[in-house]
Amino acid sequence: MAQPNLTLIGALRRTAAKLQKGAPYQWGHMGSCNCGNLAQELTTLSKAEIHQNALAVGRGDWHEQLNDYCPTSGLPMDLLIADMLNSGLETADLQHLERLTDRRILERLPKEKRYLRHNFRDDVVLYINTWADLLEEQLLAKIKLPTLEEMKMEAFV
């Protein structure tokens, strides 16, 4: 799973908020689908530029693009994917996002909400927000705050 960090968590939250407020969403469009909307937040590219990069390669949807990802190809789509991976993502995270299938995220949902549809805006928003919550919890768990006793000891040093 993705490495939790503030940049990625913020991008996920902004993506979900924009989708919830009506940002362009079309699952069949590489720049405005689940991954495309997140790519807009993690890169400086517009939905049109993302879509154009994907079509230039001609390898199909995000799942296929990620299967064929080559970090040294220099192809625009591979550079875009590399930018996204540099934010702490793994290719599997993006494949799961495109189909809303990561079981660690789905298990956090109420049982009646675990069967999400990858082409439905509300389900995408729920998935992304739940993912951001999970990453935030993982990030906070890594932070060790000093105890009161430790703080008192430091005051005397």
Task: Please characterize this protein's 3D structure.
The chain is 59% helix and 0% strand. Helix 1 (6-20) crosses helix 2 (34-42) and helix 1 (6-20) packs antiparallel against helix 8 (121-141). It has helices at residues 6-20, 34-42, 47-57, 62-67, 76-85, 91-99, 103-106, 121-141, 148-155. The protein has one domain. The model has no long low-confidence stretch (mean pLDDT 92). It has 9 helices and no strands. The longest helix is centred in the C-terminal third of the chain and has 21 residues, at 121-141. It is mostly helical and 157 residues long.
Compact summary:
With 157 residues, the chain is mostly helical. It has helices spanning 6-20, 34-42, 47-57, 62-67, 76-85, 91-99, 103-106, 121-141, 148-155. It has one domain (6-155).
Shape verdict: globular
Give the biggest sheet: none
Q: What kind of oligomer do you see? A: single chain
State mean pLDDT (0 to 100 scale): 92
Strand content: under 5%
Distance between the termini: 41 Å
